[in-house]
Amino acid sequence: MSEFRIPSHNKRYDRKSASKLLFMGLFFIGIILLFMYYLNSLSNDFKSVEKTSPDYTPDPKNGIVYHKPGFSLSYVDQYELPEWVSYHLTVDMMNKPKHERDQDFDPDPAIESGSGHYKDYKGSGFRRGHLVPSADMAWNKEAMDATFLLSNVAPMREEFNDGIWLELEHNVRDWSRLYKSIRVVAGPVFEGANTTIGENQILVPEYFYKAIFTLHDGKPKVIGFLFDQMESVQGSLVEYMVPIDSIEKVTGLDLFEGLYGDWEIEIDLEKGDIKMADEWSLNERWYNQRMNHSEK
């Protein structure tokens, strides 16, 4: 019997087929690796927001708590405003590349009863004032976009929103760099307010507050501010520093509960004369910027 031999042209065909299969295999492996990298990137972005979402929030007094990427808020349907916003701000967030704004103010679809609308502000004479500043969340696109939802907005006079409120926002970011990690709670004071704007009757608060907490070298430090936004002329930020206890009395909230580590320390710090503290230095640059802006 003659020996069976594969023709030489079949050998070349097999080599070509093997090369083609190898190329296709490597191509599909590359596609799979790219897809896995994409999923991992999405996961890391989610974890980044999840990690920095505040694990501390005040107890709500009248509102319903909603958790956003990077911050939380307690929304009061009666006033179409949050009674507080709460978030964690770190130096790592401040050092990340900043996203550019491409978001307009929009109603918040998560609010069960419906939030205020941007039309409520048209012709009202009031700005849509951020409670969580977009610049504080610029480290993450999803978090920054959430600051433009109208659940994070309150009616503010232009002079206040673009003036001393903005100056304080700059200083808060400076403190996050100085202390590496701070917690911020801010909001309106409902007591005494009786003016509303728009079809949704959004309350126009007269007063706004902001409170900041940090642990520095294991020791808690706090500072509070209370503003009358209707003041025609506003002085230095020092004039608006108040003990945390003063903010709690006008809002009915209990701020930074459980963060002090000791009840006596909490009482001492919250009732203390914060104006005598030197831990919260104010950057003169931001004051000068406000003064120059007001003169234009």
Produce a short descriptive summary:
The protein has eight helices and eleven strands. The chain has helices at 8-52, 91-95, 141-146, 158-161, 164-179, 244-251, 263-271, 284-295, and strands at 64-68, 71-76, 81-90, 127-130, 153-156, 181-189, 195-197, 202-204, 207-216, 219-228, 241-242. The strands form three sheets. Strands 1-2-3-6-9-10-11 form a seven-stranded antiparallel beta sheet, with helices on both faces. It has a two-stranded antiparallel ribbon with strand order 4-5. Strands 7-8 form a two-stranded antiparallel ribbon.
Could you please describe the fold and organization of this structure?
By secondary structure, the chain is of the alpha+beta class. The termini are far apart. The strands form 3 sheets. A 7-stranded antiparallel β-sheet has the order 1-2-3-6-9-10-11, sandwiched between helices. The protein has a two-stranded antiparallel ribbon with strand order 4-5. It has a two-stranded antiparallel ribbon with strand order 7-8. It is globular and about 50 Å long. The chain has helices at 8-52, 91-95, 141-146, 158-161, 164-179, 244-251, 263-271, 284-295, and strands at residues 64-68, 71-76, 81-90, 127-130, 153-156, 181-189, 195-197, 202-204, 207-216, 219-228, 241-242. The model is unreliable at 1-13 and 34-53 (pLDDT under 50). Helix content is 35%, strand content 22%.
